[in-house]
């Protein structure tokens, strides 16, 4: 307790220097915490966009080899109607699974009668879309209307109605209710064409695919592809995203037990955009963290070093009246810990105030490769905030320990005679 009281008095003695150092720590801590909160929001948004917005679900099941060999020889790797029924029976026994839906991807040419363009389509059960999109928008995003352009809804009563990406509107002059001929190759390599009715438009979230993507009712896709009741994959939505890896392992074993050699991929493996952005922001965070940490360390080290030099005679006096070397080191380390702790607390207060202001300001921006604006929001990343506080306390302790140790080992007579 005496050591703590002495530390407070020492910091108060050089009030201006202590305040400058404290502000440096607080601002540095706040900068790291705010950026950590921003990228945490980005990660959460990308996770929801991948799982719910892109309709990837948590797990995707297909026959082993479908992703590579299946492109050239699809009939060998597609799931037949009986395969879908058998796998559905197996999967329904798992209570962790919220949704099981067959999917069928295809590509071809669509035309408006005057011009044609290529398209990529995904066939899915209309009722499954609503379930997959649950959790796509946060409550705040629902209030401000963000994400509405990404929502998709098919008509279960009309299997000829399809959704088209918004980039196709100016390209093909599409309008609601318009009949659009779709031409594709069937599973056996023959040409097949059917008319689809434009039922709505959506954003894909990627400028590269926003002018060529369509979502079809599964029945329409199966008819176009001449694959009655079949699919190229099954999409699973779990009740808890944390169970993804465990479920993959269990399902692989269960599938082998009933004679199916499956390839099961998680949403992270299927979302290249998520992985690229995640890696990029981790590098940026590490770079910013290193710069801020260096500035804070230099500030604390400079403050402690100057304090030790100015109080050399005081150190000599304390040593002369019986204070051990460890006591001298402990005194300066306590000062540094106290200064760093107060700085972190003030930094957290600054973070909370700025975060509230930013979130209430409803700022939006257009990120790279995105067709429209997204909201700028800041979360509280407790894990990174805690890590930052621990790192600052550690480097603050080290910054005080080194000069204090040097002063403590100086001969008492030299310390008392220091000018």
Description:
α1 crosses α13, α2 (15-53) packs antiparallel against α11 and α2 packs antiparallel against α14. The model has no long low-confidence stretch (mean pLDDT 83). The strands form two sheets. The protein has a six-stranded mixed barrel. It has a two-stranded antiparallel sheet with strand order 10-11. It is α+β, with helices and mostly antiparallel strands and 419 residues long. It has two domains: 2-48 and 274-416, no CATH class; 57-270, no CATH class. The chain has 15 helices and eleven strands.
SSE blueprint:
Layout: H1 2-13, H2 15-53, E1 59-63, H3 74-77, H4 81-91, E2 97-111, E3 116-124, H5 126-132, H6 139-144, E4 161-165, H7 168-172, E5 179-185, E6 191-202, E7 213-217, H8 218-225, E8 233-238, H9 244-257, E9 262-266, H10 267-270, H11 272-310, H12 312-320, H13 325-361, E10 364-365, E11 374-375, H14 382-408, H15 412-416
Parallel strand pairs: 3-7, 4-6
Antiparallel strand pairs: 1-8, 1-9, 2-3, 2-5, 2-8, 4-7, 5-6, 10-11
Helix pairs in contact: 1-13, 2-11, 2-13, 2-14, 11-14, 13-14
